[in-house]
Amino acid sequence: MELKHLYRQIMMDHYKNPQNKGLVEDESYSKFHLYNPSCGDDITVQALVEDNIIKDIKQDGKGCSICCSSASVMSQTLKGKNVNEANEIIQSFYNMLMDQEFDNNLVQGEMLAYSGVKDFPARISCATLPWKALEQALKEEEEN
Ligand code: ZN
Fold first, then answer.
1. Whole-model pTM over 0.70
2. How many CA atoms are closer than 13 Å to the CA of 144, on its beta-carbon side?
3. pLDDT score for 113
4. Is the pLDDT of residue 34 over 70?
5. CA 14 → CA 21, 53, 62, 124, distances in Å?
6. What is the 34 CA–ligand 1 centroid distance (Å)?
7. How far is the centre of ligand 1, averaged over its atoms, from the C-alpha of 129 (Å)?
8. Of 54, 68, 69, 125, which residue is least crowded by CB atoms under 10 Å?
9. 50 CA from centroid of ligand 1 (Å)
10. 32 in helix, strand or coil?
11. Sign of torsion, CA 135 108 92 15?
């Protein structure tokens, strides 16, 4: 019960004080927008990749507290990671939310606040939306 309270607190902190919020007008960032019709979450993510390292992440949009806080946690977690590592972390996060086995070395810290979302299947897409947007932004980066 106490852990659930802590996780809820982490989400609310990021919802109220989102990290890396606000897009930049810079062509060197790749950008991806995703919309979740079941909840109305609307998120755009930008990524700046140099030498296979994610140098910067920006996120903006509107949505529920799960989605917006998850965008903040995602940007904080993956900024500074190399692209391969980031993709592994993203997949492990999806696995945790789908109640599948996941790597505890990859899903750490504030990401764990979303572990309870698996019990609310309708909200899983809220939590994964920003991570999916970044995943797509990284793919676009690769193709360019
Ligand atoms: Zn939502």
1. yes
2. 15
3. 96
4. yes
5. 11, 24, 13, 18
6. 12
7. 9
8. 125
9. 31
10. strand
11. negative
